[in-house]
Write the structure tokens for this entry.
Amino acid sequence: MAYVITRLCVDCLDQGCVEVCPVECIYEPKDASPPERPNMLYIHPTECINCGACEPECPWQAIFEDRELPDMFAGDLSLNATTQDTPKQFRVASPHRDAEGRLQPKHRPTTEQVRANRLRWDEKP
Ligand code: SF4
Ligand code: SF4
């Protein structure tokens, strides 16, 4: 079992999940321009120790345990697994810090923004 980041993360990348992951198994694409590699973070399926620490940190509710993945995001299981299949396309994500090394404050979306983000995917065919 592993946790999975869904496309609800797309273009957010606030790295809140990265800050709490104890095993650095959350990756970002080196090049997010190909359509098969969206601009989001990815969890490596065999490096993840299933601790669950990242899930409550995600302000966009984008992280799920694999067995609880909503149907509409079922394809994101294999999307996350591309970190294992094509490791050279990814690097370990690192938390955003300022020049003094302090962690950057996070944008906290409102409930309405979280709902609107989810609707973007609900409405896809
Ligand atoms: S905290 Fe959530 S939205 Fe932010 S980068 Fe991690 S998975 Fe993406
Ligand atoms: S469940 Fe734990 S090990 Fe897996 S990605 Fe989240 S924080 Fe990292």
User: Anything to note?
Assistant: Strands lie at 3-5, 26-29, 42-43, 63-65, 90-92. The pocket of iron/sulfur cluster (ligand 2) is lined by residues 3, 20-21, 23, 25-26, 43, 48-54 (CB under 6 Å).
